[in-house]
Amino acid sequence: MFRSWKAGLFLILMILIVGSGCARQTGPGTVLPLSTPTMAGSLPDNGHGATALTAYPIAEAQAKQWNSQAVLYQIPVARLMEKNLGLPSDLLGWFFMFKVPGSPVEYYIKVVQGRVLGVTEAQPIIIGEAPYTYLPIDLVTLPIGNDAAFRLFMEDGGKDYLTLHPRPIFDYRLVHLEGQPNPVWSIFDAANLDQPPLFNVDAVTGQEVGDPFAK
User: Fold this and answer.
1) I need a surface site. Which of 3, 63, 183, 209 has the fewest CB within 10 A?
2) What digits encode the pLDDT tens for the residues 135-188?
3) What distance in Å separates the CA atoms of residue 171 and residue 9, rounded to the nearest whole number?
4) Whole-prediction pTM value?
5) Residue ranges of E strands in the chain
6) DSSP secondary-structure letter at 31?
7) What share of the chain is helix, strand, coil (3-state, %, to 5)?
8) Sign of the dihedral defined by the CA atoms of residues 168, 28, 72, 137, in that order
9) CB atoms within 10 A of CB 129
10) Apex 135 CA angle, 32 and 181, nearest 5
């Protein structure tokens, strides 16, 4: 069992590093079907085991113990968080980032197999004007979860990616940035985290979009 950990103040850098341009050739604006029934049971491992929605209530309960006003602001890339915090990556799980609206303090929770494995607080150091403003996310009401986002990816280029990269390590990010209409799921290959997302999809409409961090 891991101990709870305390991170440094570098987490904002990690988030900005992965927010580079989109790698997909199919551009934003494409509306994709939500699922293909014939693919059921034949999808490759999409990572993490349980869905983000399944893990979320455990994280929310922990966050409310930290502060009763805490709300979800981001699901960061789990394996990038593990790398920056020096944690082992053999236990698949989810990170959730909570904040109290108006406060700069970020509260990160890792959930694995139905239990909280660790927590950390961080306060990003930003020189000048913040490049992005995160908005709260109501994960429970989103029509597109990470499992649906993964199906969309597989139906629109994911199979081709697998032919060229037979051992991917899929990972996810969910953010809602100010100025953008809805939260966006992004799918990464954690074996190449220095590369931009493989796929980005609007978590409300199911429409393929660009990387929310791309300028």
Assistant:
1) 3
2) 999 999 999 999 999 999 999 888 888 888 878 888 999 999 999 999 999 999
3) 23
4) 0.79
5) 71-74, 94-99, 106-112, 115-122, 170-175, 184-189, 199-202
6) B
7) 25, 20, 50
8) negative
9) 6
10) 35
